[in-house]
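Hi R.,

Here's the chain you asked about this morning:
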Amino acid sequence: MALGKELGASFLGLATDVSLASDWNASLEHIAAQFGAPTGAVLTAGGWTGGAPIHAAQDDAAWEWMLRTNLETVYRALRALLPGMVSRLHGSIVVIGARGAVRPETSAGAAAYGASKAAVVTLAQTVAEEVRAAGVRVNAVLPSTIDTPANRAAMPSAEPGKWVSTDSLAGVIGFLLSDAARDISGALLPVYGQA
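And here is the predicted structure, written out as tokens:
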């Protein structure tokens, strides 16, 4: 792994299915052995697989894939990470939502995506309240389209200069994980760029 070589001992590559509790348990053991118990996490697993208006969908494949990929992965991550953070009375988790979670009209034609991200955001806000007294914070960022190679390939006629850069999004996430955001929990931060 090129990134692993660049980061050296601060990098641990693990092949993990983040939708499985058993994989989470094994991964957390590896992480704890190399770095100690995690104090922060960014739940980036998820995706978009297209879709169609509900009335035009030919099957449930997109619905099932997006719920599994976007919602189930966050649920499993929270179930794995939070017990340790709560017992240590410290931790910060950032969940990747989407603008469509709070502006559902932007997901027209992809209701499965919008619904899955709305569920992710509701889960994050609910859990934030459950763990607040234990000193654990849970927040969500709500990006519009992120400027990635995959999105550029999928939307060649779009204007990626209006999208959210990965550096910008990483900066917001870094802030939420930092001690500077120690009094922020349950927040939904819009990161829309110019889109």
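One quick note: The chain has one domain: 39-191.

Cheers,
M.
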